[in-house]
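Subject: Re: docking follow-up (zinc ion)

Dear J.,

Thanks for your patience while I sorted out the input files. As discussed at Tuesday's group meeting, I've set up the holo structure prediction with zinc ion included as the bound ligand rather than trying to dock it afterwards. The sequence and the ligand SMILES I used are pasted below, so you can double-check that they match what you have on your end before we go further.
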Amino acid sequence: MADAEETIVLAEMADKYGGRRQALKKVKEHYTKDTLNRLAAQNYAQAGSAYFALTEQGLAAGRQAKRAVSVLRIFCAEILGLTQKETAGHLQTLLGGITPALLERYCTLIGHAYSHKIPEGACCAQAKAHNAETVLPLNQLPVGVDALVIYVQTSQRPELLKLYDLGIHPGKTVRLQQLYPAYIIATEQGRLALDNTLTGFIFVQRT
Ligand SMILES: [Zn+2]
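The structure tokens for the complex came back this morning:
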């Protein structure tokens, strides 16, 4: 099995190269000889004297890797609120211990493929088919439905921190009462009006 670093490389390569043959010289501009050798030794890639190509196995692993990397990047940025630089470091740690079951949990936390542009996994299709409890932005919640606040993207919009004092806080119940001309949100503390853009940064789960 690919380790964390190899997983990230495979995800990138599947995206950039697909199954096409590349000039070895070009590939070496981006990746070390050691990395390429390790991929070849695990049958993820074939390296000739002048070319490099992912094998079918490498391509399949790369597609899976891309999904894991995408899900975990969003998890780090949105749920943990990490910066891009912190995310890069944290990604290695998370990838090191990732299993398919764990990845599904992360995917559920971020609201599956239809809340984000990520490769769809079996869990995403299943959640959609069953209209399962899933995390979605507040502006996609139907009017009159109770939902639990799961997270607020305060890392993207620090001004959202003030909502914490107004009853929009992870663990609190909210409900959309009106969409137009402003979003009216019922909280446990009362009602408040919010503009549409900001409601896209509040993620909730139906209760
Ligand atoms: Zn999913």
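A couple of observations from a first look. The chain has two domains: 1-132, 135-206. The CA atoms of residues 55 and 176 lie 50 Å apart.

Let me know if you'd like me to rerun anything.

Best regards,
T.
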